[in-house]
Design brief:
Helices cover 54% and strands 0% of the residues. It is mainly alpha-helical.
Amino acid sequence: MADLADIAQAHIETVAAAAVKNASAKVYTGKSSLYCCECCEPIPEARRDAVPGCSLCVYCQQILEAKR
């Protein structure tokens, strides 16, 4: 029979695996948008070069990540 430590360890492993899977799903590819899809402000060229395929400005990306 599993004790409390075994149950906690299994839970930690499940949560960690889900977090890794979630993080790897956000791989940007392709051509970046010139304008943010949320606020319609121009996305700076430096961001478009640094994050290929981005569609949000830094501010809107931060808001999106904070909501998750």
